[in-house]
């Protein structure tokens, strides 16, 4: 049988370590719901709240974040939430597809953040 030819750079990624949210400093999973521009987007966090997320400066030019992506956010404690304003948070990490599938296989993603159940 002939071997399948693979394109250069099309190897399957080997997952060695997956970053998880550091609960001691308040990090949590979130899904991107809407993109506003100027490095701001609306995210739905695992605690059931919508927030305005700002992309962290360290990853701003290196990572493209799209609608529906799974990210890690760190809510701002100094921003007071009111009834008419959304809270704010900082987006510190975006998961690639290979890591998302690993997280799903190991039941690390909360049920509330299932891509089909995220409220808009």
Characterise the protein shown here.
By secondary structure, the protein is mainly beta. It has a single domain, classed as OB fold (Dihydrolipoamide Acetyltransferase, E2P), CATH 2.40.50. Helix content is 8%, strand content 30%. It has a five-stranded mixed barrel. A hairpin with a 4-residue loop joins strand 2 and strand 3. The radius of gyration is 16 Å and the shape is globular. The chain starts with 27 loop residues before the first strand and ends in a 15-residue tail after the last helix.
Please, what is the CATH homologous superfamily? Nucleic acid-binding proteins
Q: What is the CATH topology descriptor?
A: OB fold (Dihydrolipoamide Acetyltransferase, E2P)
Number of strands: 5
Task: Tell me the series of helices and strands, N- to C-terminal.
Answer: EEEEEH
Main sheet summary: 5 strands, mixed, barrel
Main-sheet strand order equals 1-2-3-5-4
From the spread of the alpha carbons, the general shape counts as globular
Which spans of ≥5 residues are poorly predicted at pLDDT below 50? none
Integer count of domains: 1
Could you name the CATH class? Mainly Beta
Number of helices: 1
Q: β content, as a range?
A: 25-35%
Gross CATH architecture: Beta Barrel
Average predicted local confidence, pLDDT = 87
Radius of gyration: 16 Å
* Structural class designation: mainly beta
Measure the end-to-end span: 50 Å
What percent of residues adopt helix (DSSP H or I)? under 10%
